[in-house]
């Protein structure tokens, strides 16, 4: 048997609104993040002789997720060859 | 007051999810457990949305709805986000990476987890190739409404891991201090400050050998291969990349193609499209300004003009 009362209903409604607000806040953050990926090309390079790596001197790039209206690849910096050991690997899928 | 300590070398943790090994690298070691939990949480949601191998996923539900006619469906936010990513991949690749090839992939024998597919002694291909309806026939309406033509099976296999890597990297960068590399089964995204000299990524061949190491900073890198997800059919060896123009397994001109782009999504779009294009791939990649390394089954290698020579 399920008991119910006006006070209990109000509590449930308030709790439901709180959860909905929290959900919206969470999904809003994810959505904002998903839409914030932007890339600008930065070809500035500086030589890191100690590490055997040539790396971009200015590394910050703005992120923006590719937009639905984009018709081509987003320009990107070139990768840099290095003689140092890898941190991780891309294996193919 | 606690201050974030940057490690001289990134710290890493790996875990299994979405049928592959995943790796998170951080420049601030103390936040590694929190980063892993965020990544695991996102991948659990991803699996429920887009897995083709779960009966309860949104992709599977939509496929069942389309068995008898045109299907209308209201996708979750995550499903629609991945649909948008897949549409972007289809658009920039000129349809070479097409998320409506699900029925063709199934017809080629990849209709279950790869271990099950490989365990078969052989598989009989249909007499006629099964082509998808084409990505432009999937209509994305307002309020998350999607319509697909009858018989459509969506397959986000070419984009889901890469787009999830991009998303997780951005989530981590927004929530935690330091820099991040997210490697989901070889599809790699980065965000935030990189270690000195960049994130160093080894290009691994099917035999496990590292062919070259390149460094990336706030870029994505991905490899597509015709050598790993393979199985036997009555018409020979098949692999998991279908040419949407024919409905058949793409040719194996290239053993592996590795691409670097502004995101993991665009990198994997370029590498998958290159497998489909075969010999035309280097010219196409150069036209699109994508740095790429293409290796043939005999081990010979072709680089695009933006790829750093070893």
> Which parts of chain B are unreliable, with pLDDT below 50 for 5 consecutive residues or more?
none
CATH class group of chain B? Alpha Beta
Please state the overall shape of chain B, judged from the principal axes of the Cα atoms: globular
Task: Determine Rg of chain A (CA atoms, Å).
Answer: 25 Å
Strand content of chain B: 25-35%
Biggest interchain interface, per-side counts: A-B, 46 and 77 residues
Please give the count of helices of chain B.
8
Describe the structure.
The complex is a heterodimer of chains A (93) and B (310). Chain A has 93 residues and is of the alpha+beta class. Chain A has one helix and four strands, in the order αββββ. Chain A has one helix at 6-34; strands at residues 45-48, 53-56, 80-81, 88-90. In chain A, strands 1-2 form a two-stranded antiparallel ribbon. In chain A, a hairpin with a 4-residue loop joins β1 (45-48) and β2 (53-56). Chain A is elongated. The relative contact order of chain A is 0.14. The model of chain A is unreliable at 1-11 and 13-69 (pLDDT under 50). Chain B is of the alpha+beta class and 310 residues long. Chain B has one domain (10-303): T-fold. Chain B has eight helices and 17 strands. Chain B has helices at 32-50, 58-65, 77-92, 102-107, 114-119, 160-175, 264-277, 281-287, and strands spanning 6-17, 20-28, 71-74, 139-140, 145-148, 180-184, 187-191, 199-204, 210-216, 220-225, 230-233, 236-239, 242-243, 248-249, 256-261, 291-295, 301-303. A four-stranded antiparallel sheet of chain B has the order 1-2-6-7. Chain B is globular and about 55 Å long. The chains are: A alpha+beta (93), B alpha+beta (310). The interface between A and B is large, with 46 and 77 residues. β3 (80-81) of chain A pairs antiparallel with β9 (210-216) of chain B.
Strand-helix topology:
The complex is a heterodimer of chains A (93) and B (310).
Chain A lengths: L5 H29 L10 E4 L4 E4 L23 E2 L6 E3 L3
Antiparallel strand pairs in A: 1-2
Chain B lengths: L5 E12 L2 E9 L3 H19 L7 H8 L5 E4 L2 H16 L9 H6 L6 H6 L19 E2 L4 E4 L11 H16 L4 E5 L2 E5 L7 E6 L5 E7 L3 E6 L4 E4 L2 E4 L2 E2 L4 E2 L6 E6 L2 H14 L3 H7 L3 E5 L5 E3 L7
Antiparallel strand pairs in B: 1-2, 2-6, 3-5, 4-5, 6-7, 8-9, 10-15, 11-12, 13-14, 15-16, 16-17
Helix pairs in contact in B: 1-6, 6-7, 7-8
């Amino acid at each position: 048997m399920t008991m119910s009362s006006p006070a209990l209903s109000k509590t449930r409604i308030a709790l439901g609104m709180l959860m909905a607000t929290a959900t919206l806040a969470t999904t809003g953050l994810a959505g904002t993040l998903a839409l914030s990926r932007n890339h600008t090309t930065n070809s500035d390079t500086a030589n890191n002789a100690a590490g055997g790596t040539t790396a971009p001197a200015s590394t910050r790039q703005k992120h923006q997720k590719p937009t639905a209206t984009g018709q081509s690849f987003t320009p990107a910096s070139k990768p840099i060859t290095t003689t140092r050991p890898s941190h991780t690997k891309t294996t193919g899928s | 007051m606690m201050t974030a300590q940057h490690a001289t070398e990134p710290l890493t943790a790996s875990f299994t999810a979405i049928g592959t090994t995943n790796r998170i690298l951080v420049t601030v070691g103390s936040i590694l457990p929190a980063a892993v939990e965020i990544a695991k949480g996102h991948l659990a949601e991803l699996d429920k949305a887009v897995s083709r191998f779960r009966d309860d996923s949104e992709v599977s539900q939509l496929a069942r709805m389309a068995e008898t006619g045109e299907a209308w469906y209201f996708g979750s936010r995550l499903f629609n986000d991945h649909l948008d990513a897949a549409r972007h991949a289809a658009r920039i690749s000129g349809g070479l990476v097409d998320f409506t090839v699900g029925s063709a992939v199934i017809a080629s024998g990849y209709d279950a987890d790869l271990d099950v597919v490989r365990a078969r002694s052989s598989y009989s291909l249909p007499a006629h190739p099964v082509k998808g309806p084409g990505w432009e026939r999937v209509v994305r309406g307002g309020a998350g409404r999607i319509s697909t033509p009858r018989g459509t099976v969506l397959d986000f296999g070419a984009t889901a891991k890469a787009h999830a890597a991009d998303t997780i990297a951005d989530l981590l960068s927004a929530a935690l201090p330091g820099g991040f590399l997210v490697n989901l089964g070889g599809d790699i995204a980065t965000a935030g400050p990189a270690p000195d000299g960049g994130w160093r990524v080894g290009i691994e061949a099917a035999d496990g050998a590292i062919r070259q190491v390149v460094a990336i900073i706030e870029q994505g890198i991905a490899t597509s291969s015709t050598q790993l997800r393979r199985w036997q059919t009555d018409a020979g060896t098949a692999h998991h990349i279908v040419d949407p123009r024919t409905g058949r397994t793409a040719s194996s001109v290239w053993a592996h193609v590795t691409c670097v782009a502004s995101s993991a999504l665009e990198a994997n779009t370029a590498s998958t499209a290159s497998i489909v294009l075969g010999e035309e791939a280097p010219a196409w990649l150069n036209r699109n300004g994508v740095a790429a390394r293409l290796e043939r089954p005999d081990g010979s290698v072709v680089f695009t003009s933006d790829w750093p020579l070893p």
